[in-house]
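Please review this one.

:::
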Amino acid sequence: MLASKVKDYFQLIKFTLSFMVVFSCVVCYLLAPNIKFDLMSVLLLFTAGMLIAGSANAINQVVEKDTDALMKRTASRPVASGRMTANEAFVFAIITGIIGVMIMWYWFNFASAMIGLFSFFLYAFIYTPLKKINSVSVLVGAFPGALPCLIGWVAGTNEFSMGGWVLFGIQFLWQFPHFWAIAWVAHKDYSKAGFKLLPSEKGPTKFTAAQTVIYSMLMIPVGMLPYYFKISGVTSMWIVLVCNLGMVLVSVMLFIKMDVAAAKKVMFSSYFYLMIVLLSLLFDKVHQI
């Protein structure tokens, strides 16, 4: 009984998705000038991030419980399946969200806590309902999706300096080919639930594939900015460039082939892209005195 309840809460917070979000936040915190690795600070930031991201994901499942029940990939979620009431999930979300914001405020700074709160609100109450109205939801959702980078940087510096915005920009642009690939693969499921997530109203079209190529290409100049602003060194610049060219290549292949298999390659490539890029920037960090 206890094990199944814990499993439900892990599903409620979308643990894997939340972990990716917090991974970006922690790496960008460690990329901040003069920040050295401190296990306690990392654990506190990780905990706060998981609580805030998990809270937003829980609200998402409360709002989308009926549509989740219509889709094969989400029908087994705790609220959609009826294993957990919407009230229980909502109360859990509010409590965890408040605790997460308070940890950010107390152990780091007020600015990072407020960005976290804004990100939570934007994802849970603007992006989530907008998914059924217009595909501009992907643009809106890209903001809370990239804000963890800024949160981490501000948590380390207590200022909205250029480094934080550069890291925000990398993750912001990354989300378009990443999410459109997911929406391409799951198009039938999403359409059944009434979600409008692809840039073309006709679904997986050449226009959608072209948009994926364009945003992948935009990632190339933005990927050079960490070197330009002396966040990281020349080694990571070349690694990021290779990763960006790889994203362009798989996106072009999607434009040529126009099938689910090609979309899956974009999707999986994007997962590896983010991990490799952020870790290369961190390991090649320019330490400032």
Notes: The chain has a mean pLDDT of 90.
